[in-house]
Design goal:
The protein has a single domain, classed as Rossmann fold, CATH 3.40.50. It is built from 9 helices and 7 strands. The chain has a 5-stranded parallel sheet with strand order 1-7-6-2-3, with helices on both faces. The model has no long low-confidence stretch (mean pLDDT 88). It binds zinc ion (2 copies).
């Protein structure tokens, strides 16, 4: 549905407002080429001097997931695009944003699990943005998306601005699993900062026998 909406939009670049000559992406070639590219650690997704399987931080203390794939940092244009997507009702952006992400994913997990939102928050916002991204991404990667496997049983306070330690303690016992998960899954979220939510979910998945956990997110930025 969002794709159809996107197709129906006028042919203007969403960033510089010049006319577009193609409809694959909502931004022009010039803007697209200026999107920042940054080598990263394949494990935690944080910037490195060159592409590495594991950075020094990950060698010392490996994350509970196996690899993280993202599109960029929480800087222009991704900050602006995600703001439009989450807070300005531009749901159709889930399609081009997940398209960018799909381009970076090799050997995708056969099942994508959006980071769950508590139903009260979903009611307030009207949708779960991680679910929209995961659905679009699953279509592009030709894999399945299961938005009911992970459940958030408590609404946690806004995590923004909290330290990693505080975030982790807020998340204790917040998630549940509704049915036995497969051996290889991917968690999908829009923004990953401290990774506290992903760590908690990964722990739960490992307890239920999951062997390989990927994380697919639009932006990865350094948390406190
Ligand atoms: Zn442009
Ligand atoms: Zn790393």
């Amino acid at each position: 549905m969002f794709n159809a909406l996107f197709q129906a939009l006028p042919l203007r670049c969403q960033l510089c407002h010049l006319r577009l000559d193609q409809r694959n992406y909502p931004w022009c070639k010039t803007c697209f080429q200026s999107f920042p590219k940054q080598p990263r650690c394949q494990r935690c997704g944080l910037p490195t001097a060159y592409t590495q399987e594991s950075c020094g931080r990950c060698l010392r203390k490996p994350p509970l997931w196996d690899r993280l794939v993202c599109v960029g940092d929480y800087t222009f244009p991704y900050d602006s695009l995600l703001h439009k997507f989450k807070y300005k009702g531009q749901y159709w952006l889930s399609s081009p944003l997940s398209n960018l992400l799909a381009d970076n994913i090799e050997n995708p997990a056969p099942i994508l699990l959006p980071v769950p939102m508590h139903w009260t928050r979903r009611l307030l916002r009207g949708f779960n943005h991680s679910n929209l991204l995961a659905q679009a991404l699953a279509r592009q990667l030709n894999v399945n998306c299961d938005s009911g496997l992970l459940i958030r049983t408590k609404a946690t306070p806004q995590q923004q601005g909290l330290t990693r330690k505080k975030r982790l303690s807020n998340l204790k016992g917040v998630f549940q699993i509704s049915s036995p998960p497969p051996e290889h899954v991917a968690l999908v979220d829009d923004v990953v900062t401290t990774g506290a939510t992903l760590a908690e979910l990964s722990l739960l998945l490992r307890k239920h026998g999951v062997k390989h956990i990927d994380v697919y997110c639009i932006v990865r930025s350094q948390g406190k």
